[in-house]
Design goal:
Largest sheet: 4 strands, parallel
Number of strands: 8
Number of helices: 6
Oligomer: single chain
Strand order of the largest sheet: 3-4-5-6
InterPro entries: MAP1 (IPR026074)
Strand content: 15-25%
Protein name: MAP1A protein
GO molecular function: actin binding; microtubule binding
Distance between the termini: 43 Å
Shape: globular
Order of helices and strands: HEEEHHEHEHHEEE
Structural class: alpha/beta
Helix content: 25-40%
Length: about 150
């Protein structure tokens, strides 16, 4: 009998995740086991997960994933996309980097949330060396020029 079967029989309602017994009712991303601290990861371009929703992205993301460019693709206010809390977490995370690297935020849609956030935090953005492109901005990559909102992966 394999480990999964034994744990299911002896502990009904529990399962194994990466070899650790868990309760399926508490298997949400926010209640998962803590991720050990490690050095930050530096990348050129990072897509903010889940359309910049607060469901999966928080301050820890911006402390660990340090990008020259962050793409914000959220355009669904009913689902909190983009999330003001995530945009604020970018400011807080960047303030803890200890180095003043240039960061560019690329919103793919012009939303009320991003406009308000931009206006209300503009001084902090300048202080932290964060530039926000307008949704009508143009990006040049490898001799090709296109609107910023057309970035594809």
């Amino acid at each position: 009998e394999d480990e999964f079967s034994r744990s299911s029989h002896s502990n009904p309602g529990k399962s194994l995740v990466n070899g650790i017994k868990t309760n399926p009712a508490s298997n949400s991303p926010k209640s998962s086991l803590p991720v050990p601290m490690g050095p930050p990861v530096y990348v050129d371009l990072a897509y903010i997960p889940n359309h910049c929703s607060g469901k999966n992205t928080d301050l820890e993301f911006f402390k660990r994933v340090r990008a020259s460019y962050y793409v914000v693709s959220g355009n669904d206010a009913a689902n909190g996309e983009p999330s003001r809390a995530v945009l604020d977490a970018l400011l807080e995370g960047k303030s803890q980097w200890g180095e003043n690297l240039q960061v560019t935020l690329i919103p793919t849609h012009d939303t009320e949330v991003t406009r308000e956030w931009y206006q209300q935090t503009h001084e902090k953005q300048q202080e932290l060396n964060i530039m926000v492109l307008a949704s009508s901005s143009t990006v040049v990559m490898q001799d090709e020029s296109f609107p910023a909102c057309k970035i594809e992966f």
